[in-house]
Design brief:
Two copies of one chain form a homodimer. The first copy, chain A, is an alpha/beta fold. Chain A folds into three domains: 263 residues, TIM Barrel, CATH 3.20.20.70; 81 residues, no CATH class; 63 residues. Helix content of chain A is 39%, strand content 21%. Chain A has 19 helices and 16 strands. The first copy, chain A, is globular and about 85 Å long. At the A-B interface, helix 1, helix 4, helix 9, helix 14 and strand 11 of A face helix 4, helix 9, helix 14, helix 16 and strand 11 of B. Strand 11 of chain A pairs antiparallel with strand 11 of chain B, so a sheet runs across the interface. Chains A, B: Its EC number is 2.3.3.21. Chains A, B: It catalyses: pyruvate + acetyl-CoA + H2O = (3R)-citramalate + CoA + H(+). Chains A, B: This is Citramalate synthase. Chains A, B: Belongs to the alpha-IPM synthase/homocitrate synthase family.
Chain lengths: 540, 540
């Protein structure tokens, strides 16, 4: 008999507390859909009333299978739950489930709220009862529960019992400051259950301040808690929350959890985990953490010579799971034979067949290494990788040649005495032996793309002779810039994501000390990839 | 009575297996000195004979208080320990302590070594005996011990007993593949000790594949192991080794460890931990992990408004330790999550005193929120935040006005038929009622900054009248770009880090649909902040 574990995601709320993270409403929607596709049970969407982004998110709330949950706090002292406008704003979001945070640590009751311990119990009771009376499923986040329990276990427990009696479906015990170690989390969780809070009403919420958030969560599950809270990629306040990207594969793949529990996450969804993790980093323009468990680019990279040779005989010698289960891949450093089999796999994905042992494989590896030393990165820029491989294989058709270009950005007052910008680009190309010159401009206040890169893209696309019609449906959808190291100096790396009318999406990379040149190089690759693809037909 | 815990660092050996890390000999020496200053007991320096870097390191071995240890493997089958040249190379490094890795998992004995289980026992015995006979302290790394124990506990234990009887001072049980969870590590460690391996001869070596390396190490210590192995910043094969940068403060500051154990690390050395961690990242040119426990830049950053206001009353409300104990610092970032008390604290840090309840606080918060809705972010761009606050407070001096600017990037063939780029910028400013026009250019192949932003920065700085001399020592040190949402459309956000000759470093932000305009705005803020700061004197 398996037991059900409930997974509660708070990427959109606690994850938003990550220093440097500021979601837009659209980004929150994108992430909500990704979480729903993954199969979590709850998606905590934010705090309605706390900021304009969260308000806008709940106003046009995404349709999800997961329970979309609004977060807030217990009513304030001195007013009734009915008259508390902060709580009202949370309820007005109209979600079926509402999670409110409240105090269970005597020090915080008297110090932060400045009320008596009994007054806090009343406040907890009335807040939860108000949610239930409003027809909502009520969840209670017991803030600082572990520290509170250590200071005054009777009082901390009486808070939990009060909200349980008031009708809370889930009571989530939080190690808010992240300082409690796994053994203590396990012991206290067991004591909470022994005191009468049923495990199937008990959740665990931990933080990673001692790098133990995952272990603390497992300790609470071992002790009987049946809801786990966390975030994708371990985003969150300070050092982050418990990392669901790690916990999910542990619970689904590792014993004793795999046999004992079931969750809403399917094997198929699990195999998309690495992509989901990288997608979140892309949305946030964060560098993916290479050494992340399960989904990191290095998680199955075998660098030690002894390991690499054993892996070639049997991957279980140095891998605790099959990387494909989480959508990740084995990496054997590019320098040895195994590097070539890796490369062949990637070429096949691009529709390029190269025989085992073909000397071209060595040439491509060398070219990739040389480019990477200059600052290029081909992890995501698969389209640029493919073009590089085609060059090395002599399979790159002659398309067109850019002879020169010039782009100007000018910012000055217009006739209404308002500062406006104008970008103008001139591009000279040679197609089929013929020189063609195009000019394009992007103006302030017209559309949303108004910079030099857009002006260059428009000019380049304007007249490519026989190819012009083939790139009409192309669109630049994202643009990421990073300063990186190219040899001994700092260079700019630009990654461009493009899309076409057939729903294809591809990424290209450009590197230069000049941001415009780097962007132009990535743009050129984007167009060349599209042309090569369409010239050879969709399946090569 | 406290017990002694031994700390064994393998940054220079297992840490070298990190994907993308390639130490030079000089870097290994630098790191060895930093580890010695920290106070670890053992420094594993590398594998003599395995590569030229490690050979050179041991040839000119640094003088350390810690025991410098050479790493190697047990003798190969079919030759005597005396005649094994791989083992001889390890001994020839001349270290007092030698650690060798060997098999304890029946699958690896028969599959990887291709010998019988008994032959492996003989091999282990002879290898350790040879180290002891050579007058060395012998350590044994029991590779794949946990997986081996799960497969065949009797055989795995017989390997440990064999090396103990042969004279090994320490037996280190390794979770080589990183797949064993903390509860199981604790149980097996206790069983190993119950089977006769004394805890004060037992070490633990874990990997972070399930994000549990720290928890697994603590579980082994709880069970009685008295040596812990790990690396600085958790470097290491795949997802890395147990992170000593996290384990050290846990063992020194958190209970039950702080009262129960002593180590070679002093309180003073602990207060240098954050610097040691950042220094290692600098040596490796890695971006420090902001959310790292204890030493991360975000480890004590309080972004949630409720947290920030409580922290202002009493830091223990949301901090599990005092950040100064590990040489880190508290940060209250500004964002639309933040409340007025947070804001006042941040203003005070900027030398701006505003009374509690001053209506200006509300105005500043509104201004910040409105800007964030347009795509600005003030978490890191403290200098731009300060300028915004000064405007709202009417404390922003008139400096200069930019009337217009124009920047051109041109790429074409030079007279040697090589493609080169030229960026040219013209800026017109009004300073002290006088219009000044400056022009500047950045060429390909000259210096490392060759883009339009650099050309604009140079033109802007060229003639600012009385202010020119004040910004002479300013330098743009980093430049980050991302596409984000500004209201309903995509905009570009640029964050610029600047530095001056007095060692100040500050960050500014600009947002526009045009990347050049966004960059120019961030540049202007950088100059304005520097001028305001120097005009009012370093302490306001």
């Amino acid at each position: 008999m398996t037991e059900r574990l409930t997974i509660y995601d708070t990427t959109l709320r606690d994850g938003q507390q990550t220093q440097g993270v500021q979601f837009s409403t659209e980004e929150k929607q994108q992430i909500a859909h990704a979480l729903d596709a993954l199969g979590v049970d709850y998606i905590e969407g934010g705090w309605p009333g706390a900021n304009p982004t969260d308000n806008a998110f709940f106003e046009a709330a995404p349709q999800t299978t997961a329970r979309l949950t609004a977060f807030g706090m217990t009513k304030r002292p001195g007013i009734s739950a009915q008259n508390d406008d902060v709580l009202a704003a949370v309820l007005n979001a109209g979600t079926k489930s509402v999670c409110i945070v409240g105090k269970t640590h005597e020090f915080h009751v008297t110090k932060a709220l400045g009320i008596t311990l009994d007054e806090n119990l009343t406040l907890l009771r009335e807040s939860i009862a108000h949610l239930v009376a409003s027809g909502r499923e009520a969840l209670f986040d017991a803030e600082h529960f572990f520290d509170g329990y250590k200071a005054n276990p009777d009082y901390a427990l009486s808070c939990l019992k009060t909200v349980l009696e008031a009708g809370a479906r889930w009571i989530v015990i939080c190690d808010t400051n992240g300082g409690t170690l796994p053994a203590e989390v396990g012991r206290i969780t067991a004591e909470v259950i022994a005191a009468g809070i049923p495990g199937d009403h008990l959740g665990i919420h931990t933080h990673d301040d001692t790098e133990n958030a995952v272990a603390c969560t497992l300790a609470a599950v071992d002790a009987g808690a049946r809801q786990i809270q966390g975030t994708l990629n371990g985003l969150g306040e300070r050092c982050g929350n418990a990392n669901l990207t790690t916990l999910i594969p542990i619970l689904l793949l590792k014993e004793p959890y795999a046999s004992r529990f079931e969750t809403g996450i399917t094997t198929k969804a699990l195999s998309g985990l690495t992509r989901t993790s990288r997608m979140l980093d892309e949305i946030l323009n964060r560098v993916p953490h290479k050494q992340a468990g399960f989904v990191g680019a290095s998680a199955f990279a075998h660098k030690a010579g002894l390991h690499a040779s054993a892996i070639a005989k049997d991957p279980t010698t140095y891998e605790h799971i099959d990387p494909a289960l989480v959508g990740n891949a084995r990496i054997i450093p590019m320098s040895n034979q195994a590097g070539q089999s890796n490369l062949r796999k990637r070429l096949t994905e691009a529709g390029l067949h190269v025989d085992k042992g073909d000397p071209a494989l060595g040439r491509i590896l060398e070219a990739v290494k040389a480019r990477e030393a200059e600052g290029y990165a081909y992890d995501t820029a698969q389209a640029s990788f493919e073009l590089l491989a085609r060059e090395a294989l002599g399979q790159m058709p002659e398309l067109f040649e850019v002879k020169r270009y010039r782009v100007t950005v000018e910012r000055r007052k217009n006739k209404y005495d308002k500062m406006v910008s104008l970008s103008e680009a001139v591009v000279v190309v040679k197609v089929d032996g013929e020189k063609r010159q195009s000019v394009s401009e992007s103006m302030d206040e017209v559309g949303s793309d108004r910079g030099p890169v857009n002006a260059l893209a428009k000019a380049l696309a304007k007249d490519l002779g026989q190819y012009s019609s083939m790139i009409e449906d192309m669109r630049l959808v994202d643009f990421k810039v990073r300063i990186t190291q190219g040899g001994t100096e700092a260079v700019t790396r630009v990654i461009i994501d493009s899309e076409d009318g057939q729903g294809n999406r591809w990424s290209t990379v450009g590197v230069s000390a000049n941001i415009v040149d780097a962007s132009f190089e990535a743009l050129l690759d984007a167009i060349r990839w599209k042309l090569v693809r369409d010239l050879k037909g969709p399946k090569g």
